[in-house]
Design goal:
- The chain has helices at residues 3-24, 96-110, 177-193, 196-202, and strands at 29-35, 47-54, 76-82, 89-90, 114-116, 125-137, 141-153, 159-171.
- 22% of the residues are buried.
- The chain has one domain: ABC-type transport auxiliary lipoprotein component (Rossmann fold, 3-Layer(aba) Sandwich).
- The protein has a 5-stranded mixed beta sheet with strand order 5-2-6-7-8, covered by helices on one side.
- A hairpin with a 3-residue loop joins strand 6 (125-137) and strand 7 (141-153).
- The longest helix is centred in the N-terminal third of the chain and has 22 residues, at 3-24.
- By secondary structure, the chain is of the alpha/beta class.
């Protein structure tokens, strides 16, 4: 075996080892990919003021077994919003309430609803109230849970609300990309499960 071949093999082994270490390393942010629904209702010409509120009873999103892996987590998410099968547009970094506000804004925009500034007093107010956002794993699987409530204040003091909950499980494999997939899946499900047509109709908007 010549010197150049030995050097090549050594470089490949070193790169492989670095990749393995990188897969297990802590991260300071969590990537989340939100997939817009393939079809959207027509709610054109409607406007809302959108607010996201964090009312979780537990601030830590990670369970005990995950805190070491994500010990450098800053509370920020790298949000990527995708249409169809595209890779998506990066909108992060955002904090947890920003994550929900940005994704819900894109969902509303896709349905023709314009999200306006809070100075627009006459526009209906829509609140996304987050009550659970949790990610954990055991020896065999990842588990992600999201619960939130949406309130829409319409005309003549009418108010509509919907409560959305979802849990996603995925087989656990080494590395943190599985965490990204499971949280992205449950996040997409919960955002897209909101029935916008019913919400606006119930609020008289």
């Amino acid at each position: 075996m010549g010197p150049s071949l030995r050097q090549t093999i050594a470089a490949v082994l070193l790169l492989s080892a670095a990749s393995s270490l990188g897969a297990c390393a802590s991260t300071d942010y969590l990537p989340v990919r939100y997939q817009l629904p393939s079809s959207a209702p027509d709610l054109a010409a409607k406007q809302v003021i959108l607010e996201a509120v964090d009312q979780r009873s537990r601030a830590d999103i990670f369970g005990p077994t995950m805190r070491q892996t994500f010990r450098h987590f800053t509370g920020n998410f790298a949000l990527r919003v995708a249409q169809d099968d595209e890779r998506g547009v990066l909108l992060g970094p955002v904090n947890l309430t920003g994550l929900f506000r940005e994704a819900m804004t894109k969902r509303l925009n896709a349905s023709g609803v314009q999200v306006v500034d809070s100075t627009a007093i006459s526009a209906p107010r829509m609140r996304v109230i987050l009550t659970r956002f949790a990610l954990d794993h055991n020896s065999t699987k990842w588990t992600a849970e999201i619960d939130y409530r949406v309130e829409l204040a319409g005309a003549d003091s009418r108010q509509a609300s919907q409560t959305i909950s979802a849990t996603e499980e995925r087989l656990r494999l080494p590395g943190s990309r599985d965490a990204e997939r499971v949280i992205s899946d449950v996040f997409t499900v919960t955002i897209n499960r909101l029935d916008l047509v019913k919400l606006f109709a119930d609020a008289g908007v």
